[in-house]
Amino acid sequence: MKRLLLLVVATVLIFTLAGCKAEEKTLVVFQNKVEIDGVLRDYAEAWGETNGVTVDIQTCGGDSCAYGTQILAEFQGAEQPDIFVIEGMGGYLDYQDKVLDLTGEAWADNTDLEFTVDGKVYGFPVAVEGWGMAYNADILEAAGVDPADLTSQAAYLQAFTDIQAYYDTEGLTDYAVVSMAAASGMTWVTGLHNFNGYLSAGLDYDDSSVIDDVNNGIVDADRLAMYANWVELLFEWGDESILLTGTYDDQVGKFADGEAAFLHQGNWTDSSYADSDFEMGYAPHAVLETGNDSIFIGAPSFYVINKDSDSIDDAKLFLNDLAASTEGHDYMVNKAHMVPAFNSVTLTPSTPLSAAVMEWNQSGNAYAWWQNDLPSGFGMDTLGPIYELYAKGVKGDSSGITKEEFIAQITAEIENLGN
Questions:
Q1: At CA 256, angle to CA 255 and CA 261, rounded to 5?
Q2: What is the CATH number of domain 130-297+362-416?
Q3: What's residue 23's pLDDT?
Q4: Gap between the Cα atoms of 210 and 358, Å rounded
Q5: The pTM of the whole model exceeds 0.85
Q6: Count of alpha carbons within 13 angstroms of residue 165, beta-carbon side
Q7: Is the pLDDT of residue 33 over 80?
Q8: Which residues have C-beta within 8 Å of that of residue 355, sequence separation ≥ 6?
Q9: Chain centroid offset of residue 7 CA
Q10: Which of 46, 114, 161, 315 is the most buried (most CB within 10 A)?
């Protein structure tokens, strides 16, 4: 009798443990912003405790992990992410067989920046992001430079010259005029973000004529020549070490330490400035010879749900709560220092570059982000190495190329898209 009782107890225990195991719920979020990894983990852990879900945040990005390569590897594994990130049409086309139709989700009525294809909603905008030429207001003032005047290539040349003269007078030998990286591992700065200037500068926000031409193999020679002059100016005045061998941390760190007048980065770097004691803002990139009056603003990346996920309901709830809850708003604005893409968010960013992006956006001075509508890999893998060679050429390295060769190689690669 005792043996029978023990057998019954053991059997009940086995089924109880099995039942508990079956009720455990997990949600894997695979994302590409290293700068928000910690705060996103904190938010996800708190959300998971409230909703009975274990949320696993996996991050791959920056100059140490190639997101596009790694996400493909994740899809080959047994445990695929439930939520992942795409960047524009190029990303969607890469992963469209994995992306769930999210038409009708509550959050989609709370934003004007959802990612859509043929009238259907697929992507949840991670944030509004922007970049121009971030500037150290203290250095510019000391050098007699008014950032409001920086709307032409000639004005920038004069500003760069005046800033270097100020450095020389003050003995600031380690200071940089421009902090910008162009080496391998940083080709997203050049082949995507910088090249976006060619794609959108001076155009109405919804004017896709240049990106449409590029994707059809058509080059605007006059526009490309003006753009190449701007790239040359940046490279000439860029800190040589950072330009040719620098990492993301090198590039941003120089600016954060107050040792660079300008930084070629966006408001996603705001988490780096907790100890910075100078005012900063944005001026336009001088892609055009004159008349540059806006910075680049958009929702470049989107959370999407894996249509093959076993946790679709939890993934939908995670996104809806992120957009609608007080906790989600606090995370986006106060913790992650992002400009939220949702109309119901009333919080204002306290961090300097996000506040600057919001100010430019509210004034209507925004050029679009079209670089993510390039074919997958074209910006970083095809164009990026050409910028690196040009940076070397500008800095006098014999292995580099001239401006004429830069223009010719960019032209050839665009024309190849039409073949």
A1: 30
A2: 3.40.190.10
A3: 59
A4: 26
A5: no
A6: 10
A7: yes
A8: 348, 349
A9: 59
A10: 315
